[in-house]
Amino acid sequence: MTFVVGENCIRCKHTDCVEVCPVDCFYEGPNFLVIHPDECIDCALCEPECPVDAIYAEDELPDDQQQFLDLNADLAEKWPNITEKKDPLPDAEEWTDAKDKLQYLER
Questions:
Q1: What is the C-alpha to C-alpha distance for residues 56 and 106, in angstroms, rounded to an integer?
Q2: What Cα–Cα distance (Å) separates residue 86 from each residue in 44, 71, 78, 105?
């Protein structure tokens, strides 16, 4: 099993989760983070660190976010690894409770 970054991360990109990951399985895009499913060891340390509740255990991923399982796997192969915490995006607070953010994902 793996953990999955879901829609709430888009346009927020908090990196608190990156800081606690013991295997450095996070990858960074312009406005979103993903978890590499083959590198995640299912430790669950990242999930409670996310201030916008964007990280899910694979078996708890909501039905309306199932596409994020494949999206995480695909983008983790393309984006650079991130291993240190950074500041969230400047307008992250404005996007925290926004819905239907997939259309804003920058690849």
A1: 21
A2: 20, 22, 20, 19
Write down the pTM of the prediction.
Answer: 0.97
Instruction: Determine, yes or no, domain membership for 104.
Output: no
DSSP structure string for 30-87? SS-EEE-TTT-----SSGGG-TT--EEEGGG--GGGTHHHHHHHHHHTTSPB--S--P
pLDDT at 25: 98
Sign of the C-alpha dihedral, residues 82, 76, 32, 65? negative
The CATH number covering residue 60 comes to 3.30.70.20
**Region 88-97 average pLDDT:** 96
